[in-house]
Specification:
39% of the residues lie in helices and 28% in strands. By secondary structure, it is an alpha+beta fold.
Length: 202
């Protein structure tokens, strides 16, 4: 399908998408009717269009790839100390209930002759977060992507999230937090290195 430029209402944000917006609008219209709403009432007249654009944005990670995200920002560098980028915000949608979960991602790696531009870590996180997800998979996918790009001595990723599927429905627990991690290379094999990373993100 042809890519088109769209703008998210009231954000000033524009982005390209290949998503079939007309079909998404139709699905949103059916959804409103199915739950007992009247799509013809004033407050809902533009809702199907807004929903279509929002979901094209929230799932844009499906239409991105690692090479495009990194865009050549890999540099030769000496040194073998732990590099940590912490507090990367993420917003995702739970694949079980299609409700949001969000939080922070902390990334650490030990270079093996190559480093990555710092902003690319946030872009890698976004690429995987902007899909239907589970938090455990998100941590592993980010770690594996960094491993693929840099072949470092080790990678550690910790994800801290809150899940609206636990807060708005089901057990309705408002203060629960979920922490998941993925450790590769020396972060998995060497306890001292792993503890150093974990202490740096506390």
């Amino acid at each position: 399908m042809k890519r088109k430029m769209i703008e998210l209402e009231d954000t000033g944000l524009t982005f390209e998408t290949e998503v079939d917006l007309e079909r998404l609008k139709g699905l949103a219209l059916d959804w409103l009717r199915t739950i007992g709403e009247d799509p013809g009432r004033e407050g809902l007249l533009k809702t199907p269009e807004r929903v279509a654009k929002a979901w094209a944005f929230l799932t844009r990670g499906y239409r991105q790839n690692l090479e495009e995200i990194v865009n050549g920002a890999v540099f030769q560098a000496e040194g073998s100390e732990v590099v940590v980028v912490k507090g990367i915000e993420f917003y995702s949608m739970c694949e079980h209930h299609m409700l949001p979960f969000f939080g922070q991602v902390h990334v650490g790696y030990i270079p093996n002759g190559k480093i990555l531009g710092l902003s690319k870590f946030a872009r890698i996180v976004d690429m995987f977060a902007r899909r239907l997800q589970v938090q455990e998979r998100l941590a592993l996918q980010v770690a594996q992507a960094i491993q693929e790009v840099l072949s470092p001595k080790g990678v550690g990723v910790v994800v801290e999230g809150v899940h609206l599927c636990m807060m708005m429905r089901g057990v309705e627990k408002q203060h629960s937090r979920t922490t998941t991690s993925a450790m590769l290379g020396v972060f998995r094999e060497d306890q001292k290195t792993r503890e150093e990373f974990l202490s740096l993100i506390r």
